[in-house]
Design a protein that fits this description.
Length: about 170
């Protein structure tokens, strides 16, 4: 029994250390430890010592059921890219895509992946951010911020989060 406990604690410690080295926490977006910075905020970006999050509803970045970035989103993305290079010039970048629950699960997963890839490609192609720093994480309709019971709530769930580690 003691051996299992020691093995279990060793595995947990190794996972926590690996996550810490990567610059990300195990806490969920929006918690005090893992703040979300609104891309359209005019104030300073909320930061944690090891990660900065930028969150945006995809309705601002994309048309419904599309992975093509809207031209109106370019100034926001340009500002984010500049902020990333200033604040975290070498950290790992996670581009997370989410959708609402309208449509089949596999379609939403694919759409969230294509949206994340669009944002990742834009960052690499339109800034000095190295593509090798960016990893896309599609989540589809999982991890909603709101119940998918109204148009406004579904809009809130259609989002992209850019997490940048130290």
């Amino acid at each position: 029994m003691q051996r299992r406990t020691i093995v279990w604690l060793t595995v947990v410690t190794a996972v926590v250390a690996a996550v810490a080295v990567a610059g990300f926490t195990l806490r969920s977006p929006g918690s005090e430890r893992f703040p979300v910075a609104d891309l359209n905020s005019t104030g300073p970006v909320t930061r944690e010592a090891d990660v900065t999050l930028y969150s945006q509803q995809s309705g601002v970045l994309f048309d419904v059921a599309s992975a093509t970035i809207n031209g109106s989103a370019v100034p926001t993305l340009r500002s984010i890219a500049a902020d990333i290079m200033k604040s975290h010039p070498t950290g790992a970048i996670r581009v997370e895509g989410y959708t609402d629950d309208a449509g089949p699960d596999d379609y939403n997963y694919d759409l969230s992946k294509r949206r994340g890839e669009s944002v990742a490609a834009w960052l690499a192609d339109n800034s000095t951010i190295d593509q090798k720093r960016i990893t896309v994480y599609p989540y589809g309709e999982t991890n909603p911020t709101q119940p998918n019971d109204t148009d406004a709530h579904r809009q809130a769930n259609r989002r992209v989060i850019i997490a940048v580690g130290k």
